[in-house]
Amino acid sequence: MRMRRRDLLLSAGSAVLLPLLGRARQAEASETAVSLEAAPGRVQLVGRSYPATDVWCYGGQVPGPGLRLRQGERLRVEFANGLVEATTVHWHGLRIPNGMDGVPYLTQEPVAPGGRFVYEFDPPDAGTYWYHPHQRSSEQVGRGLYGPLIVEEREPPRVDRELVWMLDDWRMTPEAALVDDFDNFHDMSHGGRLGNTVTVNGVIAESEPVRAGERIRLRLINTANARFFSLGFTDHKPVVIAIDGQPCEPHEPIGGRVVLGPAMRVDLMLDMSGRPGQTFPVIDDFYRNSTYRLLDLAYDAGPPLREHALDAPLALPANPLPAPDLASAVRREVRLEGGAMGSLAGARMNGEFLSIEELVRRAKAWALNGEVAEGHRMPPLLTFRRGQSVVLEIVNDTAFAHPMHIHGHSFRVLSANGRALPHGIWQDTVVVNRRERVEVAFVADNPGGWMFHCHILEHQAAGMMGVVQVT
Ligand code: C2O
Ligand code: CU
């Protein structure tokens, strides 16, 4: 991959017409241009005593190249498809124009093998995002196609260091090959493709070197197809400052556990309060009876950077999100249905009512409001007038938790089971637990057709997806 930054060249004409504005823009506006290729690759996911693993990846690496730009800058990605099948790139969480959203058949034709596509957009929000295919995502993401996308604040908070941990979960054979059962219907109808190998930034991490007294901004990104994480930082007190890229009131998570459903991101502030030479495990205890150590925070033996925690504000500057007007908002319900141990008798697909047996024969298991998605092109599940405030009540009528994701917008998470939620949280992916009702609100201000789907990628493939149309 080659990356370059260049200043936007303003024509002499515009500089003459608007000299002051022109100059201000010139100082700020710039572009980050990158080339990005998706292709088969071979990487060392597990230890050196194992063979390398055949994957599909961006830029020959897992995770793909880190894309980083300043808020207000333009990103231009010249994408090339070196895979043997069609693909697209979706910029998860970014509120960008519909034509750049990377959804096959809905926002663009899929990029054929050997084909190219230029993605170009100005992300409005600072924060932690990621990119991945939206074509046959369960297999393409599951084989390693993903990378981080960081939009820096114009005035970032003071920290000593910043780290990104992209968490992933792989289903591997004892020879370190990926298990080739991406169409496993048990996964599709149950909790999705859970693996047996968790990596941080594409390796089984042993330790993260840290220094006593330093403040780290840790950006966590869950890229797993189906695994949830609940991270505990032994004897440390992480403070959540952003969820899904969007700033929230800085707060310590409940029980000190940082929970990430698939596709979610959490930004933490971590003051390294241990002593030189100490180690502290970071553990994941999301699933009962399968707690494990993700890695160790390993303190350098050198003297502390400072004696007391850094005295600097934790809060991030706000992003330009439109506040929904709850009084005038239209209310819609989205019912999550189906799956193993569910009560779905049948649902419509492509305008035809199919019994659950017929759906299963077509490898479908889930529905939204009685509609099963076959691909990405379908009549809208919900339609909103541009600029309308919306309250969605997401009702989980299934036996599984679902991380529900919307494209092109972020929503304010209002309540769960009628309980108002604190901390002013905005997300693009909200976990709706079994039998739970979650209310979210947003302004439908981004015109176009936007996917709304479960980010357990096997659930998405098995029908748990719809289109939100903003006209
Ligand atoms: Cu992360 Cu529809 O996507
Ligand atoms: Cu789901």
Descriptive report:
The chain is mainly beta and 471 residues long. It folds into 3 domains: 5-152, Cupredoxins -  blue copper proteins (Immunoglobulin-like), CATH 2.60.40.420; 161-299, Immunoglobulin-like (Sandwich), CATH 2.60.40; 330-470, Cupredoxins -  blue copper proteins (Immunoglobulin-like). The protein contains 6 helices and 34 strands. Strands 21, 24, 26, 28, 29, 30 and 32 form a 7-stranded mixed sheet that branches. β15 and β16 (246-251) form a beta hairpin. It is globular. The chain binds CU-O-CU linkage and copper (II) ion. The site of CU-O-CU linkage (C2O) has 10 residues, from β6 and β33.
Radius of gyration, taken over Cα atoms and rounded to an integer in Å: 22 Å
CATH homologous superfamily annotation of the largest domain: Cupredoxins -  blue copper proteins
What characterizes the major β-sheet? 7 strands, mixed
The number of helical segments is 6
CATH T-level fold name of the largest domain? Immunoglobulin-like
Overall form: globular
Which class of the largest domain in CATH terms? Mainly Beta
How far apart are the termini? 38 Å
Strand composition percent: 35-45%
Secondary structure: elements and pairs:
Elements: E1 3-7, H1 12-17, H2 19-28, E2 30-43, E3 53-58, E4 67-70, E5 74-81, E6 90-92, E7 116-121, E8 127-132, H3 137-142, E9 147-152, E10 161-170, H4 185-189, E11 197-200, E12 207-210, E13 215-222, E14 229-233, E15 239-243, E16 246-251, E17 258-260, E18 265-271, E19 279-284, E20 292-299, E21 330-338, E22 346-349, E23 352-355, H5 356-361, E24 366-368, E25 382-384, E26 388-396, E27 402-406, E28 411-416, E29 419-420, E30 426-427, E31 429-432, E32 437-444, E33 448-454, H6 457-461, E34 465-470
Parallel strand pairs: 2-5, 4-9, 10-13, 12-20, 21-26, 25-34
Antiparallel strand pairs: 1-2, 2-3, 5-7, 6-8, 8-9, 10-11, 13-18, 14-17, 14-19, 15-16, 15-18, 19-20, 21-24, 22-23, 26-32, 27-31, 27-33, 28-29, 28-30, 28-32, 33-34
This protein binds CU-O-CU linkage and copper (II) ion.
